[in-house]
Amino acid sequence: MKVALTGTPGVGKTCASSLVGTIEVVSVHELAEKCHAVVGFDEERDTVEVDIDTLADAVSRIEGDVMLEGHLSHLLGVEQAIVLRCSPTVLRQRLAAKGWSDAKVRENVEAEAIDVILIEAIEAVTRVCEIDTSSMRVEDVARAIEEILSGESEKYPVGHVDWSQEVFDWF
Ligand SMILES: Nc1ncnc2c1ncn2[C@@H]1O[C@H](COP(=O)(O)OP(=O)(O)OP(=O)(O)O)[C@@H](O)[C@H]1O
Ligand SMILES: [Mg+2]
To answer: Which of 69, 101, 150, 151 sits CB 3.0–4.6 Å from 17 for a disulfide?
Structure first.
């Protein structure tokens, strides 16, 4: 089975997946480089441009169980998506600590606040779960992912994460 570990940049996909031991993990970023799906660089948004069709084609040729880790992974023909979530306030701190520009931090915090990746995942994938990582240690996020992979997805249903109160508090 192919599973996507997705979420807004900075929510902790790479950190958590590095501690998941029950499935092979493939970095979508590395796969994109390997299969020549990186087609440009968006200077304004300070991010690489990726050809989704080339990437999906490479994913379709992967055999066996695999978890694809990256913020595009839910768009690559997977059977299940795990969406990592992070409170916008906490995410702002994590992204700023990475040294990202104010504009890039803001773009991603806003995307998290309005559930952009979650909605994309629900539109593209039949089985979707979400984990609120805001106050979880990386090890605990990895254990939660392993729980979902072992069939306990009902503990992490879509809809249990809601940033609307936090967003209202901004005004
Ligand atoms: N559960 C956590 N608690 C606290 N800090 C975390 C947690 N997970 C990740 N971080 C920190 O947040 C930052 C982003 O983590 P990471 O690189 O894993 O995110 P990502 O989702 O893979 O982002 P990208 O989509 O940009 O690759 C890192 O500096 C990491 O140390
Ligand atoms: Mg990453």
So the answer is: 69
